[in-house]
Amino acid sequence: MALYIGVMSGTSLDGLDVVIVDIMTDQQFVLKAAKTYEFSAELHKKLSDLVLSPQCHLSHFAQLDIELGQFIAQSIQHILADNQLSHYDINAIGSHGHTLFHSPDSSPSFSLQIGNGHHICSDTGITTVTDFRQRDMAIGGQGAPLVPAFHQAMLSQFNTACVVANIGGIANITTLIPNQPVIGFDTGPGNGLMNAWIQRHHRVDYDHNGEWAKQGQCHPTLLQHLLSDPYFAQASPKSTGKEYFNLAWLDKILAKIDINIPSCDVQATLLQLTAISLSQAIKDQNAGISHVYLCGGGVHNLALVEHIQQLLPDKEVTTTSALGLDPDSVEAAAFAWLAYRTTIGKPGNLSSVTGADHTTLLGAIYPA
Questions:
Q1: In angstroms, how far is the first alpha carbon of the chain from the final one?
Q2: Residue of 73, 67, 209, 239 whose CA lies nearest to 148
Q3: For residue range 246-295, what is the model confidence (pLDDT) as tens digits?
Q4: Buried (b) or exposed (e) across 107-119, using 16+ Cβ within 10 A?
Q5: What is the average pLDDT across 28-54?
Q6: Which of 181, 224, 263, 309 has its CA 20 to 30 A from that of 157?
């Protein structure tokens, strides 16, 4: 066995996904274990506050970097114990960390993640790879999305035109067409705006099954203004984050149209925004695409999935469970796979996706 651990903390802040993957070759791997570890209320608040605030005291930033690294290490130790494994059984850890700010179009471009690799490595005794995005950005890339390379490996055995759509806080797609370069980009909001809106009005983390959205009606004027944002018409490669699509962005548009819209109607409109922007991005790719595989937390929003299926009537829309991979574990598994690629000296990015000048090794390695 060649076991690797993947760790992902997404923009939805719904927990730390940790997986153990047995990787035989680039295209042959088996998910051995997966678990999501909830952040403590204190750590969740600290992460949320730091993501929402563009400024912070340097000591707070440094302390949270270490706290998250220690939490990642503790979670890894738990999943190892639960599966009767030791650190000697693991080749390497791939930890994405938590994104505080992603700025691919600034000059210079940058992407900032925390989750201290020194502490992960020292506390677990396992070689750790972190900071995957920066190397791609150093050679002209967006630094994201990085998961399409894994999607390509995951679907290498299938000779069919398809899309893998990940719906996290931000949504992104990977288009896989035989004998053509892989295309992948962020389509816009995923769960992030819906989660933030319901948190503001009902103090809950997410809209279970989209039930609150179903109580409202999509507001056409609001939807039109939301979809008119230039990002949606921008050509790929492109990537974005919560520093762009957030409540401040939404509030600005609500103030501009100056209409009293019931909060549940806003939620219904945000659901449509995600469904339409994602579906339109898929339609724009290739008429020959037959399958769409959904993954990420958005698969649990049944109302959202139903809308996507309605908007793509000529495609079979399922989850990655149809491929034998838990939709909640795809991104974490991708970073286990990226750690494998890095530690054996193989590139992890796709220049056709990120726009980088060439493929390259990704991440910083902390040897055990």
A1: 19
A2: 239
A3: 999 999 999 999 899 999 999 999 999 999 999 999 999 877 899 999 99
A4: eebebbbbbbbeb
A5: 90
A6: 309
Strand-pair category, 90-95 with 128-130:
parallel
Lookup: tokens for 336: 């286990």
Alpha-carbon span 358 to 272, nearest angstrom: 36
Say how many C-beta atoms besides its own lie within 10 A of residue 95's C-beta.
34
Task: Provide the token pair at 122.
Answer: 């020292």
104 φ/ψ angles, rounded to the nearest 5 degrees: -75, -20
CA angle 7, 329, 137 (to 5 degrees): 55
Length of the chain counted residue by residue:
368
Residue 254, both tokens: 């609500």
Two tokens, residue 353? 């996706």
- Taken in order 203, 206, 208, 211, the sign of the CA dihedral is positive
Q: How does pLDDT run across 198-244, given as a tens digit for each residue?
A: 999 999 989 999 999 999 999 999 999 999 999 999 999 999 999 99
Residue 173: strand, helix, or coil: strand
Contact yes or no for 12/193 (Cβ under 8 A)? no
Q: Which residue has the higher pLDDT, 250 or 14?
A: 250
**Are the C-beta atoms of residues 211 and 199 closer than 8 Å to each other?**
no
How far is residue 258's CA from residue 246's CA, in Å, rounded to a whole number? 19
Query: Under a CB-based contact definition with an 8 Å cutoff, are residues 318 and 293 in contact?
Result: yes
